[in-house]
Design a protein that fits this description.
Number of domains: 2
Helix content: 40-55%
Structural class: alpha/beta
CATH topology of the largest domain: TIM Barrel
CATH class of the largest domain: Alpha Beta
Number of helices: 11
Largest sheet: 6 strands, parallel
Radius of gyration: 23 Å
CATH architecture of the largest domain: Alpha-Beta Barrel
Number of strands: 12
């Protein structure tokens, strides 16, 4: 969840990075009493996200700045559309401009890319989820943008759920069906009944050992489509079937058509391109 505390902290850090000792240009070139009116304009179409960041950036730059007509997160917009109006003391507006644009461009890029993946699987029941492949320090913002684009969030951190990957099983010495099942059942006993346990497999012959344990979901990693379909049939709704690896806008529909419940896509956050937005003076 994107709380005010998260927004405040992220903006404060970004402004401190961009103007650690003040905005030298604005302070020396712009009269203190001068005002300015600007528009946040889309140079290309997309899905909006980051309104809270825009508002908080200008508030911290100068609390007298007024933001009006701010687009709602999740709103679809066209090129040339005005996404917000920003007016107030020129020094504050100019100081906050780049930081506000950086946040908005980045988060709109994530929301827009997510919306394209969601649209590609709309004819199926599969959901598009993010991963932990996020920009350090910006995870809450980027996962919020994924939701704005119509996606869903995977676990936020290592503390949220158990995800057992191949290296975990290797470290435990789980090299065959019996030892894998035993290790996962012991994990369930330690974790308690309210904790989700997801187990990654990368081959069909690993599936039976995992399904024999009391787990919540199976992550089918880099499965060929035929094997993915067979895995879904074998799982038969007993746990959540999640696909990952090799997912692109060109392949996601075929993956969804195998019947998986969730498709996790690291590209939503680590591969999203910043959208082209500008702050134009009236």
């Amino acid at each position: 969840m994107l709380t005010q505390s998260i927004v405040d902290t992220a903006v404060r850090a970004a402004l401190a990075e961009d103007a650690p000792w003040g905005d030298l240009t604005a302070e020396l070139a712009i009269p203190a009493e001068l005002g300015i009116a600007t528009r946040l304009v889309a140079r290309e179409s997309g899905v909006f996200a980051g309104g809270a960041m825009v508002r908080e950036t200008f508030r911290q730059a100068d609390a007298r700045i007024e933001i009006t007509d701010l687009a709602e997160d999740g709103a679809v917009f066209a090129a040339g559309e005005v996404l917000a109006r920003v007016a107030g003391p020129a020094r504050g507006v100019l100081t906050g401009e780049r930081v506000a644009l950086n946040f908005a461009q980045r988060l709109c890029g994530v929301a827009t890319l997510t919306s394209r993946f969601v649209a590609a699987v709309a004819h199926t029941s599969a959901r598009i989820a993010d991963t932990r492949k996020t920009t350090p320090g910006l995870r809450a913002l980027e996962k919020h943008a994924v939701r704005a684009g119509g996606g869903v969030n995977h676990r936020f951190s290592l503390s949220d759920a158990i995800m057992v990957k191949d290296n975990h099983l290797a470290a435990l010495g789980a090299s065959d069906t019996a030892t894998t099942t035993r290790a996962l059942r012991l994990l369930r006993e330690r974790a308690g009944h309210t904790t989700a346990i997801i187990v990654e497999v990368d081959r069909l012959d690993q599936l039976d050992a995992v399904l024999a344990a009391d787990i919540t979901g199976v992550l089918l990693d880099n499965f060929p489509l035929d094997d993915l379909s067979m895995a879904v049939q074998r799982i038969a709704g007993s746990v959540v079937a999640e696909a990952s690896g090799g997912v692109s806008l060109e392949t996601v529909a075929s993956i969804a058509e195998t019947g998986v419940d969730v498709i996790s896509v690291g590209q939503l956050t680590h591969g999203a391109r910043a959208l082209d937005l500008g702050l134009d003076a009236d």
